[in-house]
Amino acid sequence: MAENEKNRITTTIYGRDYTIIGSEPAEHLRHVAHLVDTKMHEISAQNRALDSGRLAVLTAVNATHDYLLLEEKYNALKDELARYKGRDV
């Protein structure tokens, strides 16, 4: 696929249809949509009173939290690797 070409998929997230456009492969876009849908259903199951707007915000907060934890782990591993490479073997 050329650099500027975009993939377009139509998918359903939490009962609503969305068109997602991105440069990533269509399967990746579907996977992301599936993860968002799954997380929204998980959060909704814990609190049925949430409207879709609040549910979407809580889903975004959860995703950002998970991202930051992974980023911290990644940086710790990078630091550990740098220390390892700096040792005399």
UniProtKB/TrEMBL annotation:
Gene Ontology cellular component annotations, sorted alphabetically: cell division site; cell septum; cytosol
Main location: cytoplasm
Coiled coil regions, renumbered to chain: 60-87
Top-level lineage group: Bacteria
GO BP terms in the entry: division septum assembly; FtsZ-dependent cytokinesis; septin ring assembly
Cell compartment(s), UniProt: Cytoplasm
InterPro entries from the UniProt entry: Bac_CellDiv_Activator, Cell_div_ZapA-like, Cell_div_ZapA-like_sf
Keyword tags: Cell cycle, Cell division, Coiled coil, Cytoplasm, Septation
Keyword Cell division: yes
Signal peptide, first to last residue: none
Protein's job: Activator of cell division through the inhibition of FtsZ GTPase activity, therefore promoting FtsZ assembly into bundles of protofilaments necessary for the formation of the division Z ring. It is recruited early at mid-cell but it is not essential for cell division.
Record text on subunit structure and interactions: Homodimer. Interacts with FtsZ.
Name of the protein: Cell division protein ZapA
Provenance organism: Listeria fleischmannii 1991
Organismal lineage: Bacteria, Bacillati, Bacillota, Bacilli, Bacillales
